[in-house]
Amino acid sequence: MSANTEPAISAFGAEVKLKGFKVYEVDVNTPNGHSYNRKDFYKISLNTGKYIFHYADKSYETGETILFFSNPRIPYSCEVISQTDGYACLFTEEFFRLSERSESVLHSPLFKIGGTPIFQITKTQKTEIADIFKKMIAEQDSDYAYKDELIRNYIGLIIHEALKLQPSDNSPSQKNAAVRIASVFLELLERQFPIENMGQPLALRTAQDYAEALSVHVNYLNSAVKEITGKPTSIHIADRIISEAKALLQHTDWSIAEIAYALGFEYPTYFNNFFKKKTGQVPKTVRAAHL
C-alpha cells in the first residue's frame, strides 16, 4: 500500500515470522512511513477512506469503509487516495493452519484468484469488526497462555463475517478457458516468491517452464494470458523477477552474485544486463540508494 500506511518490513516482517501474526492500528498520521512491499503474509484490513486496488487483470476503486483480504500468492498494488482510520492483521499460513477449521477458510473465495477480497461495509458492521480487531490487539499484548488460539478464533470470526456478506455467485466458476489458465498461471507465478533461501533458486523462469508445469502448450498459455491481462506471459515473469530483485537488493545483505543465482541466472553478468534493460539501472545502484 502507499508509503504512509505500512510499517517497515525489516523489523515488522521479522516479528510476524517469529510470532506468526501481528495486529495493529494503522497510523494515518505518519508522514514518512515505509512501504510494505513483500506481501509475504496473509492480511485482513479494515480501512476507511478511498483506495484503488490494482490486480493483474482489473482494478477496483473503493470509498467509505472496506474490509480487505490478501494472501502471498496473489499480487496486487494499492493506491491510497485518502484514509482516516484503520486496523490490520498479518498472519502466516503456518500460524492459521494450527486451527482445525483453517483448511476450508484459507480456500474460501476471499483468498483465491477471482474471488471477492474487497467488501464495502456499513457503519454498524465497521463498529462490530473494529471491536474484534481491538480485542486481538489487547490479547496480542497480554500474557494469556492461550492467546494464539484466541487470536486464531478472532481471525476466523472476521473471515466468516465476510463470507456472510459475499453475494451468491450463480455464474460458472470460470468464464472461459482463457480466464482459467491465466488465473492459474498468475497464482503459480506468485507461488515462486518470495525467495528466502539462496540455496533454492527460482525454478520457473520462462513461459515454456510455466507451460510445462501447467501441462499446456506455450502458445496457448501466451495467448490466454495476453487476452485476459493485456500483457504477455514473459512480461509478467520479468516484472515479478525485477520486483523480487529490488526487494532482495533493498532488504537483504546477499551479494549481487548471490541474488543473481537465487533468481535463476547462470552468471551475475546476465542478471546485471537483464536488470539494466528492464529498469535502466544496474543492481548496485539500487542497493547503494538504500544503504
Reconstruct the topology from this structure.
Layout: H1 9-19, E1 21-25, E2 42-54, E3 59-62, E4 65-70, E5 77-91, H2 93-97, H3 102-106, E6 118-120, H4 123-140, H5 147-165, H6 177-191, H7 207-214, H8 218-229, H9 233-251, H10 256-262, H11 268-279, H12 283-289
Antiparallel strand pairs: 1-5, 2-3, 2-4, 2-5, 4-6
Keywords:
Arc Repressor Mutant, subunit A, 12 helices, alpha+beta, 47% helix, 6-stranded antiparallel β-sheet, 291 residues, Jelly Rolls, disordered N terminus, 6 strands
Overview of the structural elements:
- It is built from twelve helices and six strands.
- By secondary structure, it is an alpha+beta fold.
- Helix 6 (177-191) packs across helix 8 and helix 9 crosses helix 12 (283-289).
- Strands 1, 2, 3, 4, 5 and 6 form a six-stranded antiparallel beta sheet that branches.
- The chain is globular and about 55 Å long.
- The relative contact order is 0.10.
- It starts with 8 loop residues before the first helix and ends with a helix.
- This is AraC-like DNA-binding protein.
- It comes from Pedobacter africanus.
